[in-house]
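User: Is it possible to get a 3D structure for a protein together with its bound compound? The compound here is beta-D-glucopyranose. I've pasted both below.
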Amino acid sequence: MVSARKRLPMTRMPAACLPSMCRSPASPNRVLLAILRDRATPCNSRHRHEDADQGIQFAYPTGESSMNAIATPAATHAKATAVFTCVLAALAGLMFGLDIGVISGATQFIQRDFAISDHMVEWIVSGMMFGAAMGALLAGWMSAALGRKRSLILGAVLFVVGSLLCGFAWSPYTLIAARVVLGLAIGISTFTAPLYLAEVAPEFIRGAMVSLYQLMITIGILVAFLSDTAFSYSGNWRLMLGVIAIPGVLFLFGVFFLPDSPRWLMMRNREAEALDVLQQLRGNPDAVTREANEIKEQLRTPQRGWHLFLENSNFRRSVGLGVLLQLMQQFTGMNVVMYYAPRIFKDMGYDTTSQMWFTAIVGLTNVLATFIAIGLIDKWGRKPILYTGFAVMAIGLGVVGAMMGMGAVSHAMQLFTVGMLLVFIVGFAMSAGPLIWTLCSEVQPLKGRDFGIGCSTFTNWIANMIVGATFLTLLNSVGHTETFWLYAALNLVFIGLTFWLVPETKGVTLEHIERNLMSGRKLRDIGQ
Ligand code: BGC
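Assistant: Yes, that's possible. Here is the predicted structure of the complex:
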């Protein structure tokens, strides 16, 4: 968190107020970044000062005395809104994680009941990622045209419908279709929820809320693994998949009580309503006026990503870098473990109960190692963490591949293989997991940030789908050792790519990065 404060001085609109941080396809880490910059108080106060110099563009319609009269109930209301926002953040993160995690424990029972091939299992797993990629594309348009709240409602409805359809699926094909619906919900919600949250969360809880959101993703995966474990005793995959409709219903319920995003209202020229909502959310007329001015200032920088992409080769380089970063994240092989952990443990020689419990331990390791990333990100910088993470992942997978090639020679060796798989998980969670999202938002210039992050987020889901759709085929065709070694080798390649292409962005303003990018400096140097 330290480097956020080092990101000074700002030469133009403060990074704290970057519009695209709030308007682009969202990831928890991108929102975290926006929040970190929000907390760079000197830059905020400077901006406020500038507002004063320029004259206030918005004044809350009610007189000061009347505002004072409602200060206490307003503050209480603002607090309640803060709590609601936290709940929403937690549920959105949890849903994201639940969806990633839930399928891993269910596949063996689905395969048994439907008597289907590994190939069909791959389609069932990756149908969701396909839907999510489409959902994320749709959400960009929807969150602007329909608004954040209505998009979230639609996302939540689809989430409930998709989960129930999964639970009631009567054939492998209906299950694939249900997973696509679920994916649509995930694409829409995971795009819109952090976007909405960044726009409505009161300053004093933003940091906590975002950490909560990030952590909830990994906790969601863990909860899904645990719930799968619980249902595995009866082998009831329908309940495993159907039960996640419950957080969907809670999410839907929560969204109904939330106000529209003030930023979206201002984008639609509904300024009076925006001011009303801001008053509800903040409960303080000064804060309302200040924030309204900031939003107005931010909206002055129009997003013109597609045109910029066509015209400007430097922007094409940053879009390419974002896409590459997400390809790197997904081809570490992390989701191979997220989606197929029980199968991997089965192939190591473990029975169903051990498979499920080891999978739960994988989920717990993922949660705990995320704290390493949170602790290190501003101390070590991006590149050293990525080098370390990719190296740890390469070693972990390399050893797992070698051990699986040897077969289950002894119990101790089996456990050692499990341990090395956990080492791999630690490598991902402490590095590429959170960091890639952060970098993807840092390298895009302001005018093209929505488009740039949209491209990289879409790539994330598509690459995720490819990984999910090919793992079993790889195991069956080239074998376990070779499959794990392939991913280990890719991680080694990523160390080289990080060295040659990835910039170090720690402690540098976004403006500085943008200036370097646009002046044609090498990608790896744009953070210098
Ligand atoms: C990745 C997901 C992955 C998750 C695991 C995220 O950063 O984008 O694909 O499943 O981390 O924790």
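The mean pLDDT is 81. DSSP finds 25 helices and no strands in the chain.
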